Amino acid sequence: MRKVSSWLLRISLCAATSIFVMPCCVDDSIRAQQTNDKWQRVYTDEESVIDINVANLRFEPGNILRAGFRTILSKPEKLEAPAGAKFKSRLETIDFKGIERRYRIWETSLVDSKGKILRTYPATSTDDWRTIKIGGVMERLFNAIRAFAPFGSWKVADYRFADRTATEAQPSAELERLVGTRVRLQMDRGEVGTKVCNALVYEDERATKDELFRQLGIELESIGITADRAEMIKVRCDGNDWTPSQSLLLK
Prior knowledge:
By secondary structure, the chain is mainly beta. It folds into two domains: about 1-30 and about 150-250, no CATH class; about 40-145, Beta Barrel (Lipocalin), CATH 2.40.128.710. Helix content is about 10%, strand content about 50%.
């Protein structure tokens, strides 16, 4: 079964700010952009299963993708202390550098069968990056992340003017031509129609509706969003091979 997941892409063309609606077909077996269950199964073996927290995927500065994982053990394991304590699951926050294929464990918490956190281990060094081994469990987790939005193949279905002076009664021929354009986002590469960026950079950002209007000239109500704030992902091309050089995804 496949679902349609809609995101919004803001780009600037000829000094006019516009919003494009991009629906994407997603496979229920691997994606969960429109599900109420934040935990999705990404790995299973005889000793444990691993779930990813799809509601907490974030892009940190430095083009780092941060994700939360939950490993549920088939049998509880003992802690060294306190005596008799056992943990049933492990919560891990893991950072990935996709282009370099490296990762680091940002934080680990051990949890008992009742959901109580017994112990938490923060990262001892921010520079403790390790290589993702081919065929290993970490590669499986890394590949699973790339199946969730905003990554994947999208299509521009419609556009809205985001500034107050533009009127939809006067359609733009340039914008009309973009409807139907394929947009493909990967961890390090982006394609918008025939335009390709091989140095794509993502970063999460949050703004109130007033901040969004001051910074970008976008009124959330004009694009059907009634919330007081918006979760966004800035998408920037570090090279000169993609126009516009910066875009914005609204979650």
